[in-house]
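Structure representation.

___
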Amino acid sequence: MAQIDALFNELIKSDGSDLHLEQGQRPRMRINGKLIDCADQLVLTQEYLCGILKEISTEENWQRLERTGDLDFAYALASGERFRANYFKFFYGYGAIFRLIPSEIRSFEELGVPDVMKQVSDLKAGLVLVTGPTGSGKSSTLAAIIDLINSRYVKKILTLEEPIEFLHKNKRAIIVHREIGTDAISFAQGLRSALKTDVNIILVGEMRDRETIELALTAAEMGVLVLGTLHTNSAAKTVDRIIDSFPSNKKNQIREILANTLQIVCAQQLLPSIDKTRRWAAFEILLRSMAIPAIIRGGDTKLLKTEINTNARLGMISMDNYLLRLVQENKVSKEEAYVKAMDKTLFQIA
């Protein structure tokens, strides 16, 4: 058993989500959104920290960290619990963050994802984006979507992740997991390879650069259902982020492709409950409607919020209205909602 496993076991027993290790600091766990010191742990020296990090890393991976300053991979305990690991170098030395990957894929109901998102499973082609900051539950939502498709349809699904998080067993679908850095050089290379295969659905773990975004749009245009993530907190900012990834001479072409392919945007955030015992998810959901393509082509993405608000009957909802609902249901405080809200006037704190 690796020395670091004791810290992982403490995280699991404390029902935490992340373990933070930084040189010169004490180990910390994130529990219900709060960072808390691990029990009986001293400040991490470079010698000790590098020692426990090297225990669970291959020599090749460690050399990559030394060369690039960053490393992502997955690690599993003997008992089966899995972690998404990120090693990094920073001004004061070395650090690592480990995210506990839930052992079971949770359903829409368990996650609190609105039922309207289940219609993703019925889509045959197009682009579906789940967005939000790091740690907002994007991977869990996408896992629930893949699991629903897997239960309902005979399709071929390819996942491209860095690292692989949720491992899906074949139910009705055939699922192929490819890990970036191990099975494919990059998301772009993995996508380019996928376009040559007979695949129905592609999950892109992170659309982080222009080439990946363009290839994802190309796949969606070719009739593949593409599920992807971005670090944006609203539908409007998601569309802007995609368009702004391209030079001015390509923006109109990308707007046209996006207008033709975008099916759903689900932005999400996590907020601590009033009693601090759990976290509640808040969502903004944009569904394809008659007006959406014209709004995207026109470039006035502020109109997307109006479209969301006027189509609540279809299941669309803005982030602010969802936050307001959580406050009215006494699930989260007005103060927490105020921090996350776009329109702060809805949550003015006396």
